[in-house]
Design brief:
- There is one protein chain.
- The radius of gyration is 14 Å and the shape is globular.
- Strands 1, 2, 3, 4 and 5 form a five-stranded antiparallel β-sheet that branches.
- It has a single domain, classed as 2-Layer Sandwich (Alpha-Beta Plaits).
- It starts with a strand and ends in a 7-residue tail after the last strand.
- Helix content is 37%, strand content 28%.
- It is built from four helices and five strands.
- By secondary structure, the chain is of the alpha+beta class.
């Protein structure tokens, strides 16, 4: 098992944040399936203010390249991602088009 941590900001608008939370209470089945099919065994998203933190655990079959290829050819994933951009805002250090940024672990007990 591999564990990854990501961060992303939402638009700093309480109404949009509530809408984003509502979408994540009812994630489309196709999105859940695409996550599982990519080898992601667990995914959690936490919110503080407008800052998101995602914890993702994967099995040995997972790779970022594989997930990106699968997402690129999945119209439902593309629809979801385009919809989520309404709520998300890239962090200042993100490259164009980049959303979730992988965090570096700096401490472990």
């Amino acid at each position: 098992m591999q564990k990854y941590c990501f961060t992303l900001d939402l638009a700093n608008d309480p109404q949009l944040i509530e809408e984003y939370k509502t979408y994540h209470e009812n994630v489309w089945p196709e999105i859940k399936n695409s996550i599982i099919d990519a080898g992601i065994t667990s995914m959690e998203i936490y919110l503080l203010g407008n800052r998101l933190f995602m914890l993702m655990e994967t099995d040995a079959s997972f790779s970022f390249e594989k997930k990106a290829k699968m997402d690129a050819i999945n119209p439902k994933v593309q629809e979801w991602e385009n919809l989520m951009w309404k709520y998300q805002q890239a962090l200042p250090q993100a490259k164009p088009g980049e959303k979730w940024l992988l965090m570096d672990r700096i401490f472990h007990l």
